[in-house]
Amino acid sequence: MLNPLLRLRHLRCFLETARLGSLSAAAEALHISQPAASKTIRELEEILAVTLFDRSGRRLQLTAAGQVFQSHAGGVIADLERAQQAVLAPQRQRPRLSLGVLPTAATHLVPEAALALRETMPEALIEVMTGPNWLLLSLLREGQLDLVVGRMPPAGNSEGVKFVPLYWEKVVPVVRAGHPLTQRPWQPEDLRHFPLMLPPQGAMITGSVRAWLHSVGITEPEPAFENVSLAFGREVLRQSDTIWFISEGVVRPEVGAGSLAILPLRNELLGGPVGVSRRSDAGEGSGLEQAMLAALSEAAGKTAASLQ
């Protein structure tokens, strides 16, 4: 139990004396007399029943007990100051939106929408989390995310979630600039002669990619890599002849810059809708959420036009 005789003046005087090593210096810092400071320290030592300072030298030194008390007393004063500040000048609560972002929306769609939203609502804080779709959708259902932007959830993982499509996006085979297959017309059979990078199990596009490969006779592909990360995929393609099946939106900046190239593909059905997943019970959402949906819709319109 806290001793009822202990006061803030005891703590302040003790901490200043410990910091300065002198009662006279502490008294001056606290705007009290030296006898008052000396009396305060004596009172504190009587309350605690320990000696806090070694007074044998010219400069006061903390005893072992004094060092222990200092380590806790400083935190007490800091906590009280923060509590006082929180009451007297509470921090303004910023509007906050938590987004889950899948790879296909992370390189272009969401950044463009987020920057546009910041122009109209600069006070808003936009938290972005990336990860596999099963994790993001789970966090969405639990209320830890407000929106998830990316591919439409698979039928078996859409419970409690409603999906608003924004545009259709292809899945494409991508290679480095100058790859042998960019020099001539290619056939699906050519895929057998190069390392493949396919989406891993659990990725939104895995089923459609595997189904397409099966339809062209590659029934049991043996990929060299399974990946949907731009950073990893870009570097592997740069250093090898690997062919990467990935959503076009993930690699759009690199294709536009000319460092990567899309192999022409006749089957335009290798793809799917990109949009926004929300909780089914979310209603209209906050004003910030509605503003983000509008910004995403506008950015999606530009994206869809650039794909035509």
TrEMBL record:
It holds the Pfam family LysR_substrate. It comes from the Bacteria. The keyword Phosphoprotein does not apply. Transmembrane segments: none annotated. Keywords: DNA-binding, Transcription, Transcription regulation. The keyword Signal does not apply. InterPro entries: LysR_HTH_N, LysR_subst-bd, WH-like_DNA-bd_sf, WH_DNA-bd_sf. SUPFAM superfamilies: Periplasmic binding protein-like II, Winged helix' DNA-binding domain. Gene3D superfamilies: Periplasmic binding protein-like II, Winged helix-like DNA-binding domain superfamily/Winged helix DNA-binding domain. Belongs to the LysR transcriptional regulatory family. This is LysR family transcriptional regulator. It comes from Pseudogemmobacter faecipullorum.
